[in-house]
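A quick word before the example. In earlier lectures we treated sequence and structure as two separate objects. From today on, think of them as two lines of the same record. Here is Leucine-rich repeat-containing N-terminal plant-type domain-containing protein written that way.
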Amino acid sequence: MIIMMNPVWFNFMQAMLIVLLMLHVDLVCAEKVRCIDSERQALLHFKAGLVDNKGMLSTWGAEDDKRECCQWKGVGCSNQTSHVEILDIGRCFLGGKIHASSLMELQHLKYLNLSLNHYEDTHMPYFFGSLRNLRYLDMSYSNLGGKIPSQFGSLSQLQYLNLHGNNLEGSIPYQLGNLSKLRYLDLGWNRFEGKLPSQLGNLSKLQYLDLSSNALEGTLPPQLGNLSSLKKLFLGYNVALKFDNENNIGGQWLSNLTSLNHVDLSGIPNLNNSHSWLQMIARLPKLTELILYDCSLSDKFILSVGLSKFKFSTSLAVLDLSWNTFSSSIIFQWLSNVSSNLVELDLSHNLLEGPIPNDFGTALASLMKLDLSYNRVKGEAMNSIMNMCALQSLSVHDSNLTEDLSIIFQHLSAGCVRYSLQDLDLSNNQITGTLPDLSTFLSLKTLDLQENRLKGKIPETILLPSQFESLNVNSNSLEGGIPKSFGNTCTLRSLNLFNNSLNEQM
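And the structure line, produced from the sequence above:
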């Protein structure tokens, strides 16, 4: 089975690892470190402005709590100077207001996390610019509004800045280009507008840049080509960004981003005419994941670049072309010619119909996950898939398949995919027939056939694969008894037979 980690969680964990390696903050030793009184009072004053309905900060200043403030929840002090260096109260379900004057007293702060709380009518505090020792600042999902203060450009030690998921507006201040040690910058899901400042190209140590879901416009400054350490780039859903070849000099500066391994351009509608720009990205030597979700790409794009001229880097493993308007089998011919090492391919939510070329399966021999859902492919498409010897996950749900299930399985089981396939989703189609023997698929673990047109009795002699875990045939017209073999499968964890006409076991 392919184990997929939520990408947001993965990015968070990766960022945390980077930060822990960077900060080298001395952790508190409870028996030896005494809290500095002025900083203790500052923390209590800060708490007074907050609403803590869940008592997450109940240890702060409790009368029956004799511990020093360095032992309070989310507070860490240096075991050398006793100064508060860490304030980590993210995800504490807090409300209220941020008292600026209180935090200004904590001039030795290196790590400040106030994220995932819901502060009242809060503008981005300008005083953060005076916390010159800050290495880490996370104010994501904090209900912040207003603009980023230009004083942020004074945080010369800052290595991590996360302002994702707020209501920040205005232009991105060019002073952020002064943060020469910055490695992680997330400004995604705000309301920033205008052109991207060219000074961001000064961030030579930057590894992670998220500018997605804003209202940025104009062309990308070629100075971004100086970000030679950049590994992950998110630009999606800035619909006014332009990627025209003329103003970006064909995107030649992109060739300098040799460390880039993940690019997300989701929701940018004008990529059909950005051939050179996309080609430069696709050929980056370390690129492993390219997300072109909802980019209005169509067969026209393929025809204009040619079936074989457009090449992807051999390092590319994940390609997302979902929610576009590809309609013919030319997309399969194109992918067969331009990419050979893909591990995951998402073509769901397109307009695909008709056959899939027989050589598609052999051309993408490394593919482990394929999603063709929400299209109009035919059951005979399985003929090309049967020779994908590495394929573990196949989704063709909501695709108006009308064939008999035994024929679909016959196509699949005729090739080597019957040895590798673990997860098969054919739900929400118009598939007919009854449930056939499944033991042909030696590695199959999950099968989803809900909301089809299966009918008749399930054969008493039906066999399940030895590692089978989940079967869903909800909302069909199956009848008769439930085979005893279902109860004899020790690995079976989930069996959904609802909305049929089945009786107890045979």
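Notice the following. The longest strand covers residues 477-482. We will return to this example when we discuss secondary structure assignment.
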